[in-house]
Amino acid sequence: AVTRTFSIIKPDATRRNLTGAVTKKLEDAGLRVVASKRIQMTKEQAEGFYAVHKERPFFNDLVSFMISGPVVVQVLEGEDAVKANRDVMGATNPADAAEGTIRKEFAESIEANSVHGSDSDENAKIEIDFFFNEDEIVG
Ligand code: CMP
């Protein structure tokens, strides 16, 4: 089925002017950008978005990193979008990411790993709603 997922192009990628290169990989994987905006996340937004990780040892560093520069938040649509996006992103740690994936090609470290993508349809809906109104999504 055609579904939606949520993606973030992270500050390490926007800093290196890779917004287009990352988006091309997403599009080549069969995903369509149906909403997109470049934002500077606030600390409160980053803490809220990553609330599920707040007990993790890397939480504070993660929040600092995510507000260290602009990000591009996107809604992606396509056949089985969550899986298609996760496949093209590659493993969280670029050292483990498969050849041809975004993180293999572009990520700097497990933290500065260039992209975020939702891990389930349920979380995709929550994450899309966190950053977008329905009228900002044009399929
Ligand atoms: P993301 O998919 O955005 O979800 C949580 C993020 O935490 C993850 O990608 C990484 O960028 C970051 N992170 C930093 N350190 C770790 C770690 N040790 N394990 C998992 N994620 C980490």
From TrEMBL:
It is found in: Cytoplasm. GO terms for biological process: CTP biosynthetic process; GTP biosynthetic process; UTP biosynthetic process. Keywords: ATP-binding, Cytoplasm, Kinase, Magnesium, Metal-binding, Nucleotide metabolism, Nucleotide-binding, Phosphoprotein, Transferase. This is Nucleoside diphosphate kinase. It comes from Altericroceibacterium spongiae. NCBIfam families: PRK00668.1. The active site is at residue 116. Pfam families: NDK. InterPro entries: NDK-like_dom (IPR034907), NDK-like_dom_sf (IPR036850), Nucleoside_diP_kinase (IPR001564). The gene is ndk. ATP binds at residues 10, 58, 86, 92, 103, 113. It comes from the Bacteria. One of its GO terms (molecular function) is ATP binding.
